[in-house]
Design brief:
It contains 10 helices and 16 strands. The strands form 3 sheets. Strands 3, 5, 6, 7, 8, 15 and 16 form a 7-stranded mixed sheet that branches. Bound molecules: NADP nicotinamide-adenine-dinucleotide phosphate.
Length: 338
């Protein structure tokens, strides 16, 4: 099978940073599905794992944690999928990734693909949807059934991959008042079109920006970029007994800023369940199926903004370069093998 691998961790400008390789097709066992990958998307985790260092791999390392495709074989313990099913998933950071024509993935972290969109649009969704869903409904404990309607959330980095879906879930599912951050006309328009009620600029002081729109405090904060930079402003803006979640690694921050408010800070890492094989790992299958249902009902839309064809080492380098610039709007997808 075709795959895109790396042997060395090189700057993305280097033609050897990704190479086209041919590998044996894997064979599924246990709860694994063998999926023929039709489209993939690229996330900042890919560029972080690929970051230049001196390590050298003896076998090509396959990255990639977002895919949509078709089940072509199943392990003997698989219960929820059959050959021919169209699926979408992010996969597991500790296993071989989706930058390959065929991939093994545990059925517990796989969802049935939405029926109303194609492979490319579907591949944009899994990693960021799992992140946003777990952050909003599990870590921040916001109601999925509208019980928190009218409460406010500040989403820092509204137009990026995660923000693009988090805004939609916060608005359409939780019915919150959504304040999102964006700094350029294109990202502002994108975040508004996904349902943000108000936009403020994360390049300025968030305290001042919130004041300008007449908001002194918010019930929830979801930080998707630069936790340490926005920390003091988040501590100021959170309501007493409110909850703040971050998905971004950070320098140490001063937790005591939250003490007088009895505010909660919580991490979200969407790989936790697969990495630690937690007993509730199958929740990711359930939430991906809910995302598919929301897409099919027209309540949320794919966050794909750009699709590059075909899936190849040179096109993957283009996508990584876009992510590394740090100004993505929505998601970049690669579709179809040459
Ligand atoms: N923990 C997890 O499970 C998890 C999951 C997914 C992602 N992540 C991490 O979360 C981060 C965001 O992921 P993503 O896919 O959304 O990234 P992305 O798509 O690359 O984000 C790009 C956006 O970041 C905004 N931005 C740039 N500088 C900013 C700043 N100082 N403050 C606020 N926003 C800023 C930009 O907005 P403007 O262009 O408008 O400035 C741009 O739209 C990455 O570090 C990623 O590795 C973690």
């Amino acid at each position: 099978m075709k795959a895109i691998g790396l042997f060395k961790y090189l700057p993305i400008e280097d033609e050897q940073s990704f190479v086209d390789v041919t590998l044996d097709q894997p064979v599924p066992k246990g709860r694994d599905l063998l999926v023929k990958v039709h489209a993939i998307s690229v996330n900042p985790v890919d560029t972080k794992v690929r970051a230049p260092n001196n390590e050298v791999e003896t076998e090509p390392r396959i990255l990639g944690w977002d895919a949509a495709g078709e089940v072509t074989a199943i392990g003997n313990e698989v219960e929820h999928y059959a050959i021919g099913d169209r699926v979408f998933y992010a996969g597991d950071l500790t296993r071989s990734g989706s930058n390959a024509e065929y991939q093994l993935v545990d059925e517990q972290i796989v969802g049935h693909m939405p029926k109303t969109i194609g492979y490319a649009e579907a591949a944009a969704l899994p990693l960021t949807s799992i992140t946003a869903w777990e952050a909003l409904f599990e870590r921040l404990q916001i109601s999925k059934t509208g019980a928190d309607e009218g409460k406010s959330i500040l989403i820092i980095s509204g137009a990026g991959g995660v923000g693009s879906i988090a805004i939609q879930l916060a608005k359409k599912v939780a019915k919150l008042h959504v304040i999102a951050t964006a700094s350029r006309p294109a990202s502002i328009n994108w975040a508004k079109a996904r349902g943000a009620d108000k936009i403020i600029n994360h390049r300025n002081s968030l305290d001042d920006e919130l004041k300008k729109i007449g908001i002194s405090q918010v019930d929830y904060i979801l930080c998707l970029n630069s936790t340490e930079k926005h920390w003091a402003a988040m501590a100021n803006a959170i309501v007493p007994q409110g909850r703040i979640a971050s998905i971004v690694e950070t320098e140490p921050v001063d937790l005591s800023l939250l003490q007088s408010k009895s505010a909660t800070f919580v991490w979200e890492l969407m790989f936790t369940r697969s990495m630690y094989q937690t007993p509730d790992m199958i929740e990711q299958q359930h939430l991906l199926n809910e995302i598919a249902m929301l897409v099919d009902r027209g309540e949320i839309i794919s966050t794909m903004n750009e699709v590059i064809r075909p899936i190849s080492a040179s096109n993957l380098r283009i996508a990584h370069r876009l992510i590394e610039q740090g100004d993505m709007i929505g998601k970049v997808v690669l579709a179809d093998w040459a």
